[in-house]
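Hi V.,

You were right to ask for the full record rather than a summary. Here it is.
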Amino acid sequence: MKDPHDQLELAKPDLWGAAAVTAAFIALILGVLTGIAGILWILYVLVDIEDRARESSVEIGQYTNLIIMGIVAVAIGLLWFVGGFLLLAEKTTGRVLLILASGVGLIASIAQLFNSGFAYLFIPITVSLLILVLCVVPATGGEIAADESEPNPLAHGQDQY
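Predicted structure:
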């Protein structure tokens, strides 16, 4: 006879999934937005160079910092996007890409903040920190390492002769 006071055990939530999936979706969404923003920024700077060139002589050298800022934004956006997909596929490469892209984005945003003082840079700094922390926590790497350490079923058949 079954005890009426026994309760069914509820499945425990998978914490790695929460951190990894959150980081992956944030990276996917912001990767697209950052890439588009970087491309638009580069086009804006190039149009501004052309407009000023019509009025007077313009040195391209004064715009190199702005163009580099756009190229870095496109590169970080691409790395976030690819890393997000790879993290959803539970690949260590995705986690590494997101950590690298977030680290570079954090450093670039802080450098740009000190260089030009753009007040809106707190948003990329916060987002880079968020993705970085979500990817660095041990819960994110635990499931990836467990999945990659599974033995290859084909390798066991080679030992038999």
